[in-house]
């Protein structure tokens, strides 16, 4: 290790000595002011050495300190991208990538030409780190798009992945679509990932749908999963204007409206293959298929029979996707809501939380919803308790029978639960006055926000000290 740093010293000293204006560097466990460039050079060299030869805590501290140092550290890290040790190469790439996210981002782009060759590094960890680093720098997009046609399969694959991390660029769509038919599964997978990200962050690459559909039958699990994920994002992106009824968008011209309808037809053609993926052996594929069926805009009558059996899927990710996709404002959804009740007792807190949210979205005044919320007011998780009492508060007067149970939450150990319990009374009409005696002690609650909220609610209820 020590020999590897020595051969870099001439490069480090030359590059760092040319840089001026640094005010601070990391030393030991803190960042302290430095008097001159010579001290800067010595301390950065020490940090680089700790990166290479130090124990885990020293290396971590060196990484964190280097990220704060801007251009001098970037100049010192770039030579490490050619180090003989893979661990040093990927560590340097990771630091440069994180600097790309920070205020040093514009300076970190100087590393882009040196990161590009690492996309075909023999070590997979180095390739991944370089792709992630480039993905943190939007300035890398012009460098990455030509690489989608590179003869090296690793270069094509990681360029596509990096483009996805940057959220891509519409100009990359034609080349990415071609990669959906690449001979390499990883290339196909990363191209689908990038197209999905473009749909999520920019606009739907509609022409990709016909080539994504065959990938739903790809023998590679990741290709199937990402193809379904890309279709999900394209479907959501197409449907956003219609969902919002164009309230936040310019009214569509007849031509743009026609384009939306054509895209819907393309998405409709993906539905049979997506349905078949609900039985896939891999959980991630099943979960993404559920997301895609929801994304393409299936009506409640169509999607509920398809996804109801997956409420009992063995995988939590799949069940979570079903909860997100489950319609909440349709008669068919309400008739199927009994399938959600067992999930309120599921050991996974996210499943319980989302089951409660889904039930709570099924209409005000529902006795079924009210009765399903009462048991989970005693849930061991504070977020589930807070969600349940908020739902009852949103229902309002129809839930007035639950006031005695809500009052018990005024003594909950968690501030947010007490706060939401107090707020839930606002919509419960005259019956909420029954809670005044229990509310009064909260004027002396240990949390200011609870005291303030109790004061407001008591005033609303007509309480006069």
Low-confidence stretches: 1-36, 241-263
Q: Report mean pLDDT, rounded to a whole number.
A: 81
Q: The CATH topology of the largest domain, please?
A: Leucine-rich Repeat Variant
The strand order across the widest sheet is 1-2
Q: Give the DSSP E fraction (strand runs of 2 or more residues).
A: under 5%
CATH superfamily descriptor of the largest domain: Leucine-rich Repeat Variant
CATH class label of the largest domain:
Mainly Alpha
Largest sheet: 2 strands, antiparallel
Overview of this protein structure:
With 465 residues, the chain is mostly helical. The chain folds into three domains: 1-136, Leucine-rich Repeat Variant; 137-296, Alpha Horseshoe (Leucine-rich Repeat Variant), CATH 1.25.10.10; 364-465, Leucine-rich Repeat Variant (Alpha Horseshoe), CATH 1.25.10. It contains 28 helices and two strands. A two-stranded antiparallel sheet has the order 1-2. Helix 2 runs antiparallel to helix 3, helix 4 (56-67) packs parallel to helix 6 and helix 15 packs parallel to helix 18.
Keywords:
disordered N terminus; Leucine-rich Repeat Variant; two-stranded antiparallel ribbon; mainly alpha; 28 helices; 465 residues; single chain; 2 strands; 61% helix; 2% strand; 3 domains; flat
């Amino acid at each position: 290790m020590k020999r590897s740093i020595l051969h870099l010293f001439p490069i480090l000293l030359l590059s760092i000595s040319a840089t001026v204006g640094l005010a601070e560097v990391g030393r030991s466990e803190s960042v302290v002011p430095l008097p001159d460039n010579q001290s800067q050079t010595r301390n950065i060299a020490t940090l680089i050495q700790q990166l290479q030869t130090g124990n885990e805590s020293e290396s971590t501290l060196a990484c964190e300190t280097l990220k704060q140092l801007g251009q001098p550290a970037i100049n010192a890290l770039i030579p490490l991208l050619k180090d003989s040790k893979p661990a040093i190469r990927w560590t340097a790439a990771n630091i440069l990538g994180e600097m790309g996210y920070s205020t040093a981002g514009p300076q970190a782009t100087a590393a882009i030409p040196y990161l590009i060759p690492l996309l075909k590094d023999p070590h997979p960890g180095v390739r991944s780190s370089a792709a992630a680093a480039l993905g943190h720098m939007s300035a890398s997009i012009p460098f990455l798009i030509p690489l989608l046609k590179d003869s090296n399969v690793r270069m094509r694959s990681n360029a596509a992945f990096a483009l996805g991390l940057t959220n891509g660029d519409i100009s990359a769509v034609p080349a990415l679509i071609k990669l959906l038919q690449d001979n390499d599964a990883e290339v196909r997978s990363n191209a689908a990932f990038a197209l999905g990200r473009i749909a999520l962050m920019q606009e739907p690459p509609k022409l990709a749908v016909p080539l994504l559909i065959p990938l739903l039958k790809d023998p590679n699990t990741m290709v199937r999963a990402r193809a379904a994920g890309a279709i999900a994002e394209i479907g959501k992106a197409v449907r956003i204007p219609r969902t919002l009824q164009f309230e936040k968008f310019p009214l569509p011209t007849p031509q743009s409206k026609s384009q939306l309808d054509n895209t819907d037809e393309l998405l409709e053609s993906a539905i049979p293959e997506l349905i078949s993926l609900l039985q896939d052996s891999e959980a991630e594929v099943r979960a993404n298929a559920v997301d895609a069926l929801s994304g393409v805009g299936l009506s409640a009558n169509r999607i509920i029979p398809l996804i109801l059996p997956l409420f009992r899927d063995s995988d939590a990710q799949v069940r979570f996707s079903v909860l997100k996709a489950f319609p909440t404002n349709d008669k068919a959804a309400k008739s199927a809501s009994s399938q959600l009740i067992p999930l309120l007792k599921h050991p996974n807190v996210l499943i319980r939380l989302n089951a409660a949210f889904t039930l709570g979205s099924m209409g005000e005044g529902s006795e079924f919803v009210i009765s399903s919320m009462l048991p989970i007011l005693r849930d061991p998780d504070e977020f589930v308790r807070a969600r349940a009492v908020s739902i009852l508060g949103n229902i309002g007067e129809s839930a007035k029978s639950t006031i005695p149970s809500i009052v018990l939450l005024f003594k909950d150990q968690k501030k947010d639960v007490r706060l939401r319990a107090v707020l839930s009374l606002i919509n419960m009409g005259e019956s909420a006055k029954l809670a005044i005696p229990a509310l009064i002690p909260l004027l002396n609650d240990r949390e200011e926000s609870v005291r303030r909220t109790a004061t407001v609610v008591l005033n609303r209820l007509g309480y006069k000290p």
